[in-house]
Amino acid sequence: MKTNRYLIETSVACLLWSGSIIACKISYGSIGPFTLGLMRFSLAAVIMLAMLAVTRDHDRPRGRDMAICAATGIVGTTLYFAGENYGALLLPASTSSLIIGAFPAMTLALESAWDRTRPDGLKAAGIALAFVGVAVLAYGESSSGGSDVVLGDLALLGGGLCWAVYNLMMRPLLGKYSTTSITAWQTLFGALGFVPLVLLTEGLPTATPAPEALLSLAYLVLGCTVAGFILYNHSLKGLPASTAASFANLIPVFGLILSALILGEAITVPQHLGGSLVVAGIFLSARS
């Protein structure tokens, strides 16, 4: 039963994250990608640190563990979301979906190399099937609207590598501290990591963001960051990193559903087929 709980938690996290691309696109009208990262994670860190104070959670990582929190915050927050935000700015949704679909395979390969083990056959088959599903989804989408594709590809792939490393770096912290405490300190360090990126590339904002950008920012802070990361980090207590990461393949599926419900976009036959393959692949990976 506990395993089912962890699977539900990581699924909900991916559902929340699936709306992030839409929210980011809306925000880019008046907020730069790195400035958006700084605002998002600064506000989220304040909220989560306040949660620790209200609940009197004094289980703060110390010494080497705090250093690990800082490192995972830079890798899993600053570098990953810098790559995702910048890649999403340059690429069409189809290309972004295909690259994000490769992240679980990258995590599995890195996890197997780190542990010096062979990937479980069922898990590897599940991730491969899910990747095929994402490829079908990407093929069925329009490829228009992207610019500087190579740079966008590299940005997203770099972010995916950071996500794979983040999952392994989290291991020494799991079970030692509360999930909220770990996530709060990671988010704080991740927000600080965005400061030099903003100063070097975009500069401090001089105008007030548009109302729709502020609403999107609120969703990114409360839904994608506070709730999403707490749920995902807690799921890592009961799931292997590669299994939890395989649920990232649900993001383009959830994204299609949200696009249909919110934007009224029609779901095509290739999208139905690709979504079914993704769900089947995740079922095999989780079952292993």
Automatic annotation (TrEMBL):
Domain of life the protein comes from: Bacteria
Organism from which the protein derives: Parafannyhessea umbonata
Descriptive protein name: Permease of the drug/metabolite transporter (DMT) superfamily
UniProt-listed Pfam families: EamA
Keywords: Membrane, Transmembrane, Transmembrane helix
Matching PROSITE patterns: PROKAR_LIPOPROTEIN
Transmembrane portions of the chain: 7-28, 34-54, 66-83, 89-110, 122-139, 151-170, 182-201, 213-232, 244-263
Bilayer topology term: Multi-pass membrane protein
SUPFAM superfamilies associated with the record: Multidrug resistance efflux transporter EmrE
InterPro entries: AA-Vitamin_Transporters, EamA_dom, EmrE-like
EamA domain ranges (all copies): 12-138, 151-285
Family affiliation: Belongs to the EamA transporter family.
Location(s), subcellular: Membrane
Principal location: membrane
